[in-house]
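Recall that a protein's primary structure is simply its ordered list of amino acids. Everything else, from secondary elements to tertiary packing, is in principle encoded there. The following example makes that idea concrete.
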Amino acid sequence: MKSYQITEYSHEMFRLLAKEGGTYIDATMGNGYDTLFLCRMAGETGTVLAFDIQQQALEATKTRLKECHMEEKAQLILDSHVHMDRYAEKDSIDGIYFNFGYLPGGDHALATRAETSAEAVYKGLELLKKGGVMALCIYSGKDTGFEEKDRILGLLKELDEKKYLVIVSSYYNRKKNPPVPAWIVKR
C-alpha cells in the first residue's frame, strides 16, 4: 500500500476483495479517480457504470478517462446513485464504489445526503452478485456529513450477517472526524 489516505486504502482492499474483469458501478463519480480505478479493474472484459448529479463531475471524469485511454470502458450517467437500479439488473454487479461527500473543488452545498445515500446503498446491495463487493468511503467534518455517516454506519450494523460480511475500519488516532472506510461482501 502506497498511501494511507482513505481512497488509496479503500482501493487496495477493494482490489483484494473484488473479482477483476467484472461489471462495476461508481456510485459517486466525482472527479473520476474511482471511475478510472474501476475501469482498470474491469480490464479487457468488464465495464463500468458511473453516476453523478453534477455535469462538472461528468466532464472531469470524461477528461480523466480520455487522458488514460479508458473512455470506452465506462458509461457516464448524469443521474443520482439512487437510480442505479434503472441501469443494472438485480444480481448483475461485481462491485460498487461509494465516495460520499461533496465534489472536491465543487459546490459543498451539493453533497451526498443521508436519506438518498442509504437508499442507494440498499439498492446497490440488490444489484450485487453473490461474492460482490461494495466499498464505502464515509466522510464527516466541520458542519457536514455527520447525519449521513451515522445513518450509513447504522444500516451497515443492521445488515443480516448470513447475507453480508461487513468490515468497518477506522483511523483510530486521527483527530477531527477522520473518514471511515467500509466494505460489504455479499454472501
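The chain has a mean pLDDT of 92. The chain is about 35% helix and 25% strand.
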